[in-house]
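Batch 3, record 17
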Amino acid sequence: MRTARVFRLSMAHPGDLSELDGLIVSGTIKAADVAAIIGKTEGNGGVNDFTRGYFTQTLMALLSKHLGRPAAELVREVPCVLSGGTEGVMSPHYSVFCVSEGEAAKRYPSALAIGTAFSAPVPAEDVGRSAHVESVAATVRAAILGAGIERAEDVHFVQVKCPCVTVARAAAAIAAGKTPLTSDPNKSMAFARAAGAFGVALGLSEIKPDDFTDASLLADFAIQSPRASISSGVEVESNEVVVLGNSPNWAGDLRIAHRPMSDALDIGGVVDVLADLGFAASPQVSAADATRISSVLVKCEPDRRGRIRGHRHTMLDDTDINAQRHIRGAVAGLVAGVIGDGRIFVSGGAEHQGPDGGGLIAVIASQEGAG
Amino acid sequence: MRTARVFRLSMAHPGDLSELDGLIVSGTIKAADVAAIIGKTEGNGGVNDFTRGYFTQTLMALLSKHLGRPAAELVREVPCVLSGGTEGVMSPHYSVFCVSEGEAAKRYPSALAIGTAFSAPVPAEDVGRSAHVESVAATVRAAILGAGIERAEDVHFVQVKCPCVTVARAAAAIAAGKTPLTSDPNKSMAFARAAGAFGVALGLSEIKPDDFTDASLLADFAIQSPRASISSGVEVESNEVVVLGNSPNWAGDLRIAHRPMSDALDIGGVVDVLADLGFAASPQVSAADATRISSVLVKCEPDRRGRIRGHRHTMLDDTDINAQRHIRGAVAGLVAGVIGDGRIFVSGGAEHQGPDGGGLIAVIASQEGAG
Amino acid sequence: MRTARVFRLSMAHPGDLSELDGLIVSGTIKAADVAAIIGKTEGNGGVNDFTRGYFTQTLMALLSKHLGRPAAELVREVPCVLSGGTEGVMSPHYSVFCVSEGEAAKRYPSALAIGTAFSAPVPAEDVGRSAHVESVAATVRAAILGAGIERAEDVHFVQVKCPCVTVARAAAAIAAGKTPLTSDPNKSMAFARAAGAFGVALGLSEIKPDDFTDASLLADFAIQSPRASISSGVEVESNEVVVLGNSPNWAGDLRIAHRPMSDALDIGGVVDVLADLGFAASPQVSAADATRISSVLVKCEPDRRGRIRGHRHTMLDDTDINAQRHIRGAVAGLVAGVIGDGRIFVSGGAEHQGPDGGGLIAVIASQEGAG
Amino acid sequence: MRTARVFRLSMAHPGDLSELDGLIVSGTIKAADVAAIIGKTEGNGGVNDFTRGYFTQTLMALLSKHLGRPAAELVREVPCVLSGGTEGVMSPHYSVFCVSEGEAAKRYPSALAIGTAFSAPVPAEDVGRSAHVESVAATVRAAILGAGIERAEDVHFVQVKCPCVTVARAAAAIAAGKTPLTSDPNKSMAFARAAGAFGVALGLSEIKPDDFTDASLLADFAIQSPRASISSGVEVESNEVVVLGNSPNWAGDLRIAHRPMSDALDIGGVVDVLADLGFAASPQVSAADATRISSVLVKCEPDRRGRIRGHRHTMLDDTDINAQRHIRGAVAGLVAGVIGDGRIFVSGGAEHQGPDGGGLIAVIASQEGAG
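Prediction for the assembled complex:
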């Protein structure tokens, strides 16, 4: 029986993995058990945010050192999902998801289960289209299978890192007689995130194959999954998937829950997901209870219609601060206030990931001492 | 008997006062009743934020047109306090504080009272020193007297706009044989805000004259007032004060309450001030109840020690986004989430205004239908 | 015989027109002679740059005061073209273009001529299309005619302010059965600038009506005019045109010249336009000669292919600083270095205005004492 | 006889050293010959610029791989000086300074000489004081000696990386009964840069020990060295020095020259340094000649008095863009325009490094084919 553990660690800068190194050296974590990393680095979260690459390089070198295997291999086996931007009260940190075999006796009917999977490379002409959606869906199903989660409703959070088109990849595809959706990396990234969200919805059977066409992506915002968290980047060529859910087949004391957030002011969604895990936030989780929480994962989006509950916001027209930085800071302020802790993962670019103009929240917490 | 009314109005841009114009034209507001304005404009909140000047120019031209009096006079009679920066979920808006005589029958034992006062010009060599503190304190006392608020504990919010030293003013003072604290406008602004906060604390008898010296400003952060909200700017030469409190001598249905905020995650302070006014926020004020709220005023500050509840924040070291923009966005996200409305005044630069690393919140709401 | 004069004035902030006020009060400038203003204000140059509106409001109030006419009328008669963003060494300033009748004896064979014209409002469905191009072309021709410039080659700079579509205008057009090019104001602004540039090229007979179709705008960058300087904004509904050229029909000592700039490093273009006016810049215009210069007008653009002379630039992928701010700062550094003065107008958004990836420069200088 | 070579290489991102790797693999560069690196990475250049750490980690891992020595050792032997921020037309690049023994026949009377040296760690209480100045001076002299440069006037550029105080280092010093100048890292960095500049001036005998006291740093701006380029950072504990000059004791075809820049518009300084090396820039170095240039090194500063040649600049009051980013972009625009190439090193924070409000420029070029 497998056991999932999650370590939420702090960093002094994006190249500082000394806390993880210490835990490996002390034997608390076996390097081979590290299944995935999800973290927030203190960059700007945009195309020119190199804190993600810096962290990833440092992580892979660290694992390589401890495992005696090439970093170039590890980067294709261990998903390292980073969101840049610790606006406002957010604190730079990373959650290390570990899976160990046969260590712990089973104490709860169901416990956190982790599955990871990598797809084949996505051809440039498929990115952001139905073929991309299907590739993600198949990879999600593979990760669920690997995690031993038997029911789709037990999946609570699916993180996907999708490839996008670069100018070079697009040019190569065109030269080969193919027709990529776009040659613009920024547009491609948005379509790739949409394909990822559709793929999660499809993989979880929230939608069916004939519920959408290519034209639905970034257009039909009624199609969304409140369990999909998607990032896209030029640094990957295949879809990388981390599935988090609960399963009777896993030992361990952790449990995950999720809720959609209807808009950036939806404190109700935050309180509800905490209640699902036995926390009272009235108005804040107590410091004692908060130690049970090992990960908080949030997606959000500046409402593209320019208003929140009828009142104009200024995020989309700000030439000085990127709209995603605005919304991350605001939603993190809200979620951190309810939880009493700034070590939360709040990521933007939430197209089709939760309700339009809103997003989603997932929390992982220990069942030990839960109310 | 006087009646205070507050109109919270939206704007399409910093030069748009069409909503106020409409209310004056329709007779809802008499231009002569406008006693003060407190608002949020969509600038950056820094030295080069001209949205405040643009709004003020437009306001004074509007009042001038309706009153037939020169704008240059009105600007010295009607405090117009603007905080730039509508980061995240904040919506650009302004609250118009109106005072009318003998209009309404008294329905509540105590109601919102408004007082305003202007000091004599503050000499450059006094700015940020004890003489400045005393000038503010005297102006605060004058405003309280004018408002007919009999007990210091009935004052809940004191907004002060303090002059600071400009390079030119400092040079003139030096030429006259005086010794200004600094010739640097930015440093001067911080000391001026400190003097304003000390002045409010002194004017409200929260501290005594011998509790501090010149050296206490920006140094002894144990000295603070949870009712002081201070801004400083080159555009004023005297201290401008708006006192908001409750008084049995006023008719009207509004009431004000305030609470300190211990840090940027202090959702408890937000919920408590709402409870003081009869609101349940569990977790959010209902949309129906929220219509009773006519103004939300918040001061906050990025913790200058670099940590919030033990975890590192990155606001102070960010070369891309000013620290005050970060903290405003985060705290506004929290407060707007509890209230369900982005039309809130959240202002940074909260030295000595509420607990160190935190700030304060004041809310004005109708007593009609209060729980 | 008309005389054109240009006063380059400084400002302490975007609402400061005290220098112009002083010149009107002293009689140096007659308010009725003010034909157009072109200036740089210290905003960010983006959608949320309100320094332009602040300046315009202040200017129109000033002219209204001196002329005894409503500001609302003047704003439709006197083009006030502002570019936000004084990055780097640029100094906030504005050039006042004055036209007076019969004052001066003719001393030079040809002198600066100024023409202005306003088109009818551009319907939302026309913005960024051929009909828009034709409207601009006709307005340009009207301004040339008004200026009494007889030969197209004597026109050296055509400033156009084009309307763009707002969400509201687009919705109204759709409701009326029309099909606007886009409902996105930002996209619309870019297409409107393209239409303005095509319109100038057409109005100056640089291109013919059948040289382009709707599809050429923002696509065929071989079509460009090195004399077109276009801005677009939501605040105008018709095309506003200022034509600057030389004419034997004008008295006065000023003269204008222009040159294309092939890329952001094209110092040759700068030196050449100065040589056209009799200046030696070897390497810099001498301080004495520089007093002859009364206006420097530059358009530029971050190369959209991501490279300058083969080397990667990072302007287009910077999430922290807008690409237009980057390029304005760089090109202004170059031009100001050659001229020895930071009071230059450098504006971005140069699609089809000069060579692709480059732009243009125009200089106005006195012929008095020219080498 | 030693030979110095300089390779100016491009990078696709701050972790991309593939060009250097290729040159080492192909045998063009011996890894052991790499003496120092000076480069521009595409960060923001501020405290939270992690592109420098990312590049350095990648470089040291690369050298470690090729040399079979630990990266932790190499980082204390090979100075890697990076300036973040490729504003405007600058292109991310790095210059690799290589020193080889006995390879080349001597062809020129004098050639580029390179010396490097590391001081002992600087105690926290010494940072930014005379003891720090003396430590830098001694290290500069050691590097000059190592380089075999016999005359002080043959030194043209001294790059120093100085340690600064961190909160932790300051606290430890205070606990040990010492009195650091400040506990604020940002203030400490500025004083450390000043100490570095004074140290270079002292090491080059431009000033004498009794020309200054602790109080002169950041105060007496008449003291400056036009050959000092200083950076400061928390990542170093000792002073790292790279001296570049010309010496008859070196073979090779390279040569270095330098000039002060009197202000940000001093194009004359740029043209003069090029003339020193036999280049005509009239107005631009020809593309053919430009291939002879292997490194361009510039320091600059936004004039702290707020004016350039009498006209107000807005760099120091901009809340949106850091002043150093502004000035780097402007000066790089000028220098790149004269040279016709964006691969230039332009660094801010030039206190006491060249004239107040200005800075300096150094250029390295081949003597082969020089005019």
